[in-house]
Amino acid sequence: MFIEYLSLTDFRTYPQLDVALGPGVTVFVGANGIGKTNIVEAIGYLASLSSHRVSSDGPLVRFGSGQALVRARVVRGQQTTSLELELNPGKANRARINRANPVRAREILGILRTVLFAPEDLALVKGDPSSRRRFLDELLTSLIPHHAATRSDYERVLKQRNALLKSARAAGRFTSAHEATLEVWDHHLAQAGAALVKARLELVQLLQPRIDRAYAALTDGSKPAVAVYRSTLESQLSDDGEPEGPEAAGAPGDGGLADLDLEQLRERYLEALRRQRRREVERGLSLVGPHRDELELWLGQAPAKGYASHGETWSLALALRLASYYVLCEDGQGPGATPVLILDDVFAELDTQRRDKLAGIVAGAEQVLVTAAVADDIPAGLRGGQITVVPGGVSDGRQTA
């Protein structure tokens, strides 16, 4: 698939921006801070309803404006779809498909698929577990859009349950009324949480061989790259109290969570909540569930976080994104199914060898969008059409009134 036209209104620094695009490689070149990333951020947001730079919609709307609009025409095979997304900070975002009546924003998920590489991806390896959970959940919603509702349901129930626990803690005593209400929320949380854990486990099984393949392609292949999903529904420590190694990944057939069906996971969740009841009441928050799970990353026999070199960290972060790309490509069979690849100021962070290897891997995508402050940072294999970004717009002649 590819984007043939992008329009931004009051998005970030742009009062209005209209850009014609096409298949192949397009490089956005301009000085740092001039707005290159704003353009590709809008595309990524249209695909995932989230930004790789901020956690809320407010900063995405131009200062002084009450609403931002992102519009695009997406071509997939012989089909062209017009998308429009209204960003309304503090209120519900709305979307339109082919200029029809407004619908909930999440109705557009899955129409445009992107994989975005950015310097912020280092947090996937070096950051806290929330970065890796977000990585999994965003890929899930791209693959299976209804999982956006799964995650939303879980977060809603978790918020209500935490409010009850906090209230009971503030009251200084846990009454029978608290107990009865908490029991109800436990069942809701277990139902939603089991669905989310099940989906994540299945996704990690898909990703694991592709992460290792991508990491080997970016390096000398001397260390296997392994992703391990650690759930609070099972012990995260071995008997001697040391973290388990990558060989304890919980693959299907080992009797772990990956072998349980949805109902069995729900029962496991309820059991874990019962065991943690006293501690949760004491602390006033939920201690069990996918909001506290971890995606551990290993290189060889050592955890990547804290042990990987800077080059290894970059390679592993890139491998996670490439694995996402492989999964999405294999999921979407048929013409125009490959996702749009976005490389946001990545090459300036890489040495020449990694630049060339990454360029060779992604060059075959139907559409590749690259941002760079200096055109010379782009490997020769990715020097396609160039758009110069200037204050408030672009200067290549493709901007329309």
What does this structure look like?
Residues 22-394 form the AAA+ ATPase domain. This is DNA replication and repair protein RecF. ATP binds at residues 30-37. The RecF protein is involved in DNA metabolism; it is required for DNA replication and normal SOS inducibility. RecF binds preferentially to single-stranded, linear DNA. It also seems to bind ATP. Its main location: cytoplasm. Mean pLDDT is 90; it is low at 236-243 and 397-401. The longest helix is centred in the middle third of the chain and has 43 residues, at 176-218. The relative contact order is 0.17. This protein has helices at residues 36-48, 123-126, 129-143, 147-171, 176-218, 262-275, 277-283, 310-331, 352-362; strands at 2-11, 14-20, 24-29, 68-76, 79-87, 94-97, 103-104, 114-117, 225-230, 294-299, 302-303, 340-344, 367-372, 385-390, 393-394. By secondary structure, it is of the alpha/beta class. The strands form three sheets. A six-stranded antiparallel β-sheet has the order 2-1-4-5-6-7, covered by helices on one side. Strands 8-12-13-3-14-15 form a six-stranded mixed β-sheet, sandwiched between helices. A hairpin with a 6-residue loop joins β5 and β6 (94-97). The chain has two domains: 2-113 and 339-394, 3-Layer(aba) Sandwich (Rossmann fold); 139-303, Glutathione S-transferase Yfyf (Class Pi), Chain A, domain 2. The protein is 38% helix and 21% strand. The two termini are 26 Å apart.
